[in-house]
């Protein structure tokens, strides 16, 4: 069996970009959507907290280590300076894991160095942590053969991976660190491809006695963050990897044995990133839906059991709908009372009924219908009065609605830019969208909005000449 690193020119990787031509634009759209949803949420601290927590916990779970979520959450709350009812107590282990992750996704423009990697390794393995087998902490491995082996009774052991010998580690790491720092911003290398290559190249070298997978995933996050520092804190790549742990190890193993062609690994990495972004968008969208629902029903009189039921539905606890018997079980009331409570929620516009009636009756949240958010395309080149009027309308909007309009505008602009041959009208619209984004940015940067300002409706803004174009 030969390994990829045995070739003297092993880092001269190649991969087929055919699948990536479809994947990459979809990924960048999702990154933009995620950032827009986070801005619509107003305060994205909670989203960042949830994503970072998931990333840390799942990265360790991939290696078979189950962390105490509450300890990690407590460390995150402390490091981020948040106010949260964290029930756990932070430990040296959880503090170290959090510090490593925050360094990777926050200090994205700091160069990768040997000392930075050694620091991450020390944070992974605090001095007071009990270990059955001692390891060299904060330094590269210096002895032994590094292999990943599996075996079953009555079967010969299978070597899935073997790392380069120790006498090559130092030079391989010098070359890797140099490449990583110099490749940032390389126009010939897409940032997502670069992140996949960085992850693969580091775990192939396997420079440490332990912790290579977790540090390799942190390096991948660092590479992604250098290209998109806004959204990197909002999704958990490790959570996506953990959902396909077997596929992850198989893709890495195949790449180790497949010469310098990394098509399978790079495409797997991109698909997993796409899924991770989708999960993050769904999570934040669910939070926004919940926030809007309670804004719409803030004056609705509800009892504690009804509040609990609605929150469970909004959190997705009953994807097939809530029945009277399930309501009775968690609210600890009779089925007759449960039916009365649910009927009252229907009459108050909180729930809708579906199903065949009787025992099959189910209840789901009724979301208020709202005007669709339209992109802002406006020609203000020779119309200062129009520019002033549009700015006035945008200033009156709450930050969440302004972020939604920005998201819609960027989405429409991206769609036009992806057209092979946009029409004359589309090119005209593109100029209007760019102008609209500049106005939105002007309002955001000036911080002109305040909670007590009147809220303009979308219809009022659409009434402005050249305002929101209906598509």
Automatic annotation (TrEMBL):
The keyword Nucleotide-binding applies. ATP binds at residues 210-217, 248-249. The active site is at 206. GO terms for molecular function: ATP binding. Keywords: ATP-binding, Nucleotide-binding. InterPro entries: DUF4172, Fido, Fido-like_dom_sf, Fido_containing, WH-like_DNA-bd_sf. The keyword ATP-binding applies. It holds the Pfam family DUF4172. It comes from the Bacteria. Signal peptide: none annotated. Residues 112-271 form the Fido domain. PROSITE patterns: FIDO (PS51459). This is Cell filamentation protein Fic. It comes from Thalassospira marina.
